[in-house]
């Protein structure tokens, strides 16, 4: 019999949480000696996607100030398409927290899309001198 916590993990229709920010394909230079994709490469893709999402909110330059709770859930093979999805979690005076998920599919192998990593990225809006600046308020 399943426990309540096991039932909560079951998702009959898994789908990305957030908007598609970037999409790319894995190349030989992104692999380790076993032919799998480096975790650092994937973290970089997620950082770039979250950077893009937060710079739209900040209406200008941002810098990564913290990366929390990156989990790598499954390996990625060479030639996979990697889509990074982002969602704005919180906007402060100058900071923006963004969740990022990486999903992959291998078109040639006919794989279903599956989530391979997730994490939370924090950015700070900066000016042209690299100093913290306030995020402009949304005009209504
Ligand atoms: C980004 C930077 C200008 C911020 O300077 P700072 O003096 O730490 O800024 P502040 O203390 O004024 O904090 C600014 C905001 O960031 C938040 N913040 C700072 N450090 C944080 C951290 N480690 N985690 C989460 N939020 C953080 C603060 O809470 C504040 O948020 P708010 O304005 O929304 O309330 C500075 O830390 C920096 O230049 N870091 C390097 C950035 C970089 O090069 N990134 C790429 C790495 S290769």
Automatic annotation (TrEMBL):
The keyword Nuclease belongs to this UniProt entry's keyword annotation: no
InterPro entries linked: Cytosol_ACT (IPR040170), HOTDOG_ACOT (IPR033120), HotDog_dom_sf (IPR029069), Thioestr_dom (IPR006683)
GO biological process, one term: fatty acid catabolic process
Residues making up the signal peptide according to the UniProt record: none
Gene Ontology cellular-component terms listed: cytosol
Taxonomic superkingdom: Bacteria
Tagged with keyword Calcium: no
PROSITE patterns recorded: HOTDOG_ACOT (PS51770)
Annotated HotDog ACOT-type domain residues: 16-129
Entries under Pfam families matching the protein: 4HBT
Keyword annotations: Hydrolase
GO molecular function, one term: long-chain fatty acyl-CoA hydrolase activity
Family statement drawn from the similarity comment of this UniProt entry: Belongs to the acyl coenzyme A hydrolase family.
Descriptive protein name: Acyl-CoA thioesterase
């Amino acid at each position: 019999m399943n426990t309540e916590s096991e039932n909560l993990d079951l998702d009959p229709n898994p789908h990305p949480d957030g908007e598609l920010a970037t999409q790319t394909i894995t190349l030989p230079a992104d692999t380790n000696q076993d032919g799998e994709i480096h975790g650092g490469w994937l973290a970089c893709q997620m950082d770039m996607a979250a950077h893009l999402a937060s710079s739209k909110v900040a209406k200008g330059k941002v810098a990564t100030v913290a990366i929390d709770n990156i989990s790598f859930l499954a390996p990625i093979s060479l030639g996979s398409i990697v889509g990074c999805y982002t969602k704005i979690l919180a906007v402060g005076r100058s900071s923006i927290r963004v969740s990022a998920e990486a999903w992959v599919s291998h078109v040639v192998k006919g794989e279903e899309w599956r989530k391979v990593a997730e994490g939370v990225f924090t950015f700070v809006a900066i000016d042209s001198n690299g100093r913290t600046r306030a995020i402009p308020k949304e005009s209504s």
